[in-house]
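Q: DNA-directed RNA polymerase III subunit RPC3, please. Structure only.
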Amino acid sequence: GCVTTDRLPLKLELKQVAEMSLMPEREARPLLGRMLAAGFVSLQEMPRSTDHNPRTTVYLWHVEMARACRALEAEMLATESKLISRLEAEHRRGERMHGDGESTAPSGDPSRVASFLETAILQTHESIMFFRYI
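A: Structure for DNA-directed RNA polymerase III subunit RPC3:
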């Protein structure tokens, strides 16, 4: 489940996106490229001639909400997975510290780090469940 909205125009040129985001086109272009690669926005080419010359082609940026929602959910799941992996590593680190009486870790209390990670995992998981519900 993802919230959809009809408030935004369907498709915008780079100039329009830059104006709406209050940033210069030279900053908006690479940001849109990264968002395109991540699946948050889509790009449609509208050639003005049959030769598909890039100079005469109009490029329209738009958001496909279902696709953007799937991309966001995938990012959130990847974050949760990384947090779980880190938590497992911290637990192993804590076992090594307590097993031989000597710390193999350069710094930081593994139990405090683990507690922080557990909280972050729960909050991330809660956000994923909320996101799926809306």
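A: Brief note, in case it's useful. The chain is about 60% helix and 10% strand.
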